[in-house]
Amino acid sequence: MKWIDIGINLTNRRYQKDRPQVIENALIAGVEKMIITGTNVNESKKAFQLTQSRPGTLYATAGCHPHDASTLNAEGLTEIETLASQKTVVAIGECGLDFNRNFSPPEKQITAFKQQLELAVKLDKPVFLHERDAFDTQFEILKDYMPALRGAVIHCFTGTAQALEQYLALGLSIGITGWICDERRGQGLYDITRLIPDDRLMIETDGPYLTPRNLSPKPAGGRNEPKFLPHIAQTIAQAREQSLQQVASISYTNSCTFFNLT
Known about the structure:
Elements: E1 3-8, H1 19-28, E2 31-36, H2 41-51, E3 58-62, H3 74-84, E4 89-98, H4 106-123, E5 127-132, H5 135-145, E6 152-154, H6 161-170, E7 173-176, H7 187-192, E8 201-203, H8 229-240, H9 244-259
Parallel strand pairs: 1-2, 2-3, 3-4, 4-5, 5-6, 6-7, 7-8
């Protein structure tokens, strides 16, 4: 079975000592392609540089996470545009709104989000979205942009059935992480994952974060890796009452189509 991890923070320092081995272990597990998440200008540059080392395997996004929105200026936007013009940079993001911690003021987040959506329209690139405790505002903004966007995926979706329904109605794809493997926090997600249409489902680890709680044995240091993607998919398959092969097939096809992977 073939897999694609649509969201892996491979530039994170927790991979610094053994990044090449992490990639090899993913390939051994059947994870053939990985999309490295760009969370700010510097991390987006690092993500792009990594894609040059493994063409056909590593891809990247370029953007500014809402936590870093207050640091995004005109120069940074230009740098994101330059990066996003590269073939191996397949989406704008991670972008969106996060009103849970407000590391950047909401008004700064909204401005940076709209700027990146406009850039995605200009470059005809899909967007890789983040949203936490900001559904109403994000949804209203997306309504204005979705008709012109190539596509949008809500990364690491953990919301309600109502939020899922509204995102789907807007035309979004849905990224599911190992959050679904946590019977304490993820039961709600487990219960509604079956509502995602086959052609809208994508899978991600969001490593090194969100290590599946039901992994056994637990990884040393608790670090999540792309090689655990098939484990996450097994729980998704159970939740959707589908075979693992079916989940592999639909998520792989959806990801290739959405991100225009070659």
